[in-house]
Amino acid sequence: MQARLLTRETGDVSPDDISKSVNADLLRSFAPAPQHRFNGEIVSQSSLDETPERAHSLRAHGAGVSGLALEKFDGRILVSGGSEGSIKIWDLDKAPTPNQGHVFRPVSTIARSTGGKRLNGHSHGITHLAFYPFDPDAFLSSSYDKTLKLWATQHSALTAEFHLNATIYSHSMSPIADHLLVSCATQHSNVRLVDLKSGSAVQALVAHGGPVLCTSWSPRHEHILASGHADGKVRIWDIRRAGGVVAQLDQEDSLGIVHRFRHAAASGQDWTAMPHFRASAQAHDEAVNGLQWTDDGKHMVSAGLDRKIRVWDAGTGANTLASFGALIQNQHAKTAAIIVTPSGLSAGQQVLIWPNQEEILLLDLHDGNVITRLRSPGSTNPVGPRAGGLGRNRITTIAWRGAGGGSGHIAPVMGGGNSVGAIYSAHLDGQIRAWMPLIPGPDDVDETEHVDEDEEVRTRKRKAVDSAYRSLMGRQITFTGTGR
Length: 484
Hints:
The protein is mainly beta. Helices cover 12% and strands 33% of the residues. The protein is built from 5 helices and 30 strands. The chain has helices at 2-9, 15-27, 45-50, 257-266, 455-473, and strands at residues 30-32, 36-38, 65-70, 77-82, 87-91, 102-104, 108-110, 126-131, 138-143, 147-152, 157-163, 168-173, 181-186, 191-195, 200-205, 212-217, 224-229, 234-238, 245-248, 288-293, 299-304, 308-313, 339-340, 351-356, 359-364, 370-375, 395-403, 413-414, 422-427, 432-437. The protein has a 5-stranded antiparallel sheet with strand order 1-30-29-27-28. The protein has a 4-stranded antiparallel sheet with strand order 3-4-5-7, with no helix packed on it. The two termini are 28 Å apart. The relative contact order is 0.14.
């Protein structure tokens, strides 16, 4: 750290390079953050006084957490969905510091719609949550009750509801488009498009590949959409065209369409008559349940139930042949969360964050090497085709904490108002777990060893550490103040 500060002060390294170098170290130092817990149960103050909150007994959703979304503008509001159908909203700035213990409680709850009461909430388990790309005060939810709902975050108020007559596994919106189309992956073979502006399901992209398990919009072209299907295919659509699929990813193609056309032209073949893709082309040998573009639109990542993760050149459609080894676990026919860190965030390659049953893997996006394996304290994750499948500790989805907006699905700057970065994971056991970079701070000091120090000395130490971090990160990060 001292060397970096020196090179910055002497002008040998730009502030941007310093930031990338620091972020690279932070990404490699993620670890469990059990000091931050989420308690979604309604508990009276009297019972709380009688029975202190114990970490192992805290649950965000008693029946399990099945959905998670974090807004990218301030990195402050976290929304969680329960297997029973409720939705809870959390303010992450309620924690005064990253290192200090804190139990979050929901600032608002959208109750499950039950019995004969006509409530606004979902009547069945939540399948997916996502914030509106351009405004943190709106988010979307889908459920096994076959509805897609739009909510106002601040008031937890329902603003629109769509009945699709099919189970919705997940949904997504373009991070750049002027249109307000929501693509829905459902149990039917067609990709359903819902227009928030008109308030209706306006279009179906017709395919015959079994259920659609995931969709993802291009961050560079507002009308380009990718969908993952149960037949192992990834179909690329231009939603303006009536002709349907414009391309399919092919795991056997490591050259890409551009190189194939050039080769055909060089060899004298009629390249204009060549098809853009093989009709039988498959991205995976089994169902595709995960898709994510990189924020710069240069690559796409896919995941399949064949326990493979593949990285594709988005410009040519070529399989880059990145290999992530036999460690990858993926055996549930539901949308899998894939996080790719923003381009330019850190020195070196981008990082792929993958929920691997009961652990989180941080992987180099292009060479597949494992950077970090994150496990909850006390958990195990044996390697094998059936490992961890029924564990109550299994991760159902993950969310990245970033701030700064940007055009991607996740924010380009690590951390929020009171954190230098975090990953949050949702679990079948009802817990939301936090993972943060290991950084030294004044809260790491054992106060019992310094009981004789006067308050002035302790205050001076805290100011010194705070000043060092402010200089290092290029932003003010305090360890004694409260959230916004």
